[in-house]
Amino acid sequence: MRNEIEVRNAKVKLPDILRRVQSGEIFTITDCGKAIAELRPIHENSRAVANAAVENILNLKKYYVSDEQIVSLKSE
Description:
Blueprint: E1 2-6, H1 7-12, H2 14-22, E2 26-31, E3 34-39, H3 46-60, H4 67-75
Parallel strand pairs: 1-2
Antiparallel strand pairs: 2-3
């Protein structure tokens, strides 16, 4: 699971965030809405890795890329 948190809130909630990271969550730290860092477990467990893979696959299904676009991207 990926979460976003503003840097100001991250400073205040760091102990809670670190506990959640240990359980496999990933945090994107933002400053004024702009992503500046990612906080993730050093050794993600296989369930967290699988969940992230499924999330990525589901996100990719939202977009259709034609064969022509793939060929064009490969040539670039």
